Amino acid sequence: MALWMEEGSNPLTESEKADLDAISAIKESAALELKEKGNEFVRLGRKHYSDAIDCYTRAINQKVLSNSENSVLFANRAHVNLLLGNYRRALNDAEEAINLCPTNIKAIYRAAKASLSLNLLDEAKSYCVSGIKCDPNNVEIKKIEEQIDSLKSEQEQREAQVRKAIAEAEKLVSAIVHRGLKIGKATYQELTGLRKPVLDKNNILHWPVLLLYAEVMSSDFIEDFCETDMFSAHLDMMFSEGCPPLPWDVENKYTREAVELYYEVGSGICLSKVNIIRHLLEGTAASNAENLVLDEKDAIECSNHDTSANEGSSKWIKVNEKRTLHDVLKAPNCLIPGIPVFYVVWRNSKFYKDFKAGRWGPPS
Questions:
Q1: For 74, which of 28, 97, 128, 258 could close a Cys bridge (C-beta 3.0–4.6 Å)?
Q2: Regions of the chain where pLDDT drops below 70
Q3: Running DSSP on this structure, what letter comes out for residue 271?
Q4: pTM for the predicted model, two decimal places
Q5: Which ranges carry the Cns1/TTC4 wheel domain (predicted)?
Q6: Into which CATH architecture does domain 172-292+313-357 fall?
């Protein structure tokens, strides 16, 4: 009997040939029946999709159908996997269907749809082009192609925005490094938000500056402090007679003559170029960029920059108001915590004595 023949061996008698033909016919009939059952399960709805996949799989495994018929089975299984959200499996099945029958328009459509769902836009576009060649009037494939073109356009715009943001951040870091400035980990981000310095067309840095009134821990901002500006110019404006007093300074103690500015000397570590760039990219289109290409040495923390105060010196350094912002920031002991932070104190208060003596520190 042909049933007992070894796989791959040739039938020797007419009887064996007849048996094999009969077996093949039975398998073919079973495969076609499984295909129809699968189609019926699809029509019955989502609860029966797994049964449909099982039927299509069993039909394929009969290995008796023609390439075009098997192509239909793979395309049908791709359709069910699409409905289930199994996009990778759907794409694999659609590709198998196309390999068996390159003109299977349903398989091409499902390959394009699965690729689109996997955000494989170039692959999806390629399938659409192939599909339209096979069927120039296929409305569904043209709809998918329109979606892909729109998404590719958006993607190109995002990529352009990312490149621009990275280029601007790298240019800004170069300006910071060229000036010998040191950037440390950002502090008071609940106050500073995503404020960052700006480099203008004349290669001049403009910093947002946070002012902290240490005694009451209230804050204020100088949104645009040009690096070439002297502190006195901004203080004269902030505490001029024409400006209203600070809302919490009911006794109007914080006058132009009575305030002093200080910055804190800590023992922080200067960030690497890569980490400074990542900080500058926060809130931009490139905030999650992973392809920053810099020299290996740029990724190393600048640990050789010790910003701690000299032994016996104060933790707080008084700002000379006649100096520019750049002059103060480039001091060897100045580490900029993201953006410049200066503490405003009233020299006639008891707090001032504690502050100067190092008996006060900002809340952690």
A1: 97
A2: 1-12, 15-23, 267, 290-314, 364
A3: P
A4: 0.71
A5: 200-267
A6: Roll (3.10)
